[in-house]
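User: For a reading group we're discussing how well predicted structures match intuition. Take GMP synthase (Glutamine-hydrolyzing). Before you show the prediction, I'll give you the sequence so everyone sees exactly what went in.
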Amino acid sequence: MTQHAQKLLFLSLRNGPIGPAVSHAEYHDTLRATGLTTDDVELRTIADESDELGSLDGIAGIVVGGSSLNITNAEYSPWQNHVHGILADIIEGEVPVFFVCYGISWLTHHLGGTISHSHPEASGPTIVSLTDAASDDPLLAGLPKLFTALTGHTENPDGTLPAKLSLLADGPTCPVQIVRYRDRVWATQFHAEMDAAAMKTRMDFYYDYGYFPQEDYDDIIAGLPSVDTVTSNEIVKRFAQHCLSH
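Assistant: Thanks. Here is the predicted 3D structure of GMP synthase (Glutamine-hydrolyzing), as structure tokens, for the group to look at:
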């Protein structure tokens, strides 16, 4: 798709010693899921409070990766406050945005919703169930109503969603799996960009962050190749196509 003058932006929210490695892993997972190349998707990282988003000229859509940040932290660092300010700006712009994992908690919280630890999901597979509202969504229309995806999170939107959010998917182990804000901002609780290899890489990066019981590591890894991520990856691919075709 390099014939397009515009490109996508992958915005990474990773910092610390492993931040650059995680950023590049997420970036390349997104390239694989979308079928795009480094010519089509630009990587930018907000690793501290001095990093700026930069110009969005020529950017057709933004994929915001996951983060080790937590909405439920008692206090926010200057970096986290800076990240939140950037995210608040991009969701009110004209460029479509696709959030993965952390972004669904941030977006819900930003719009007045509650985030808790009521439905954490250990690293591994989850079941996603599309709601009726997904039937005419440009990223979800025509997809299977039930599909599997890969996930791993400790916090989640809880209770009634803010009125400005549309619930596009729920699931048996987490009640909020996909939401949409306005007509150009989506967020998934699961990692729509991941396949089995990507999940293992991420688990190795965050082995002791509480995303899974360490004693279950071998069993989780052994089961990953059997998880069908075709549909969840298709959502990211559709986002890319939606942005680059408009």
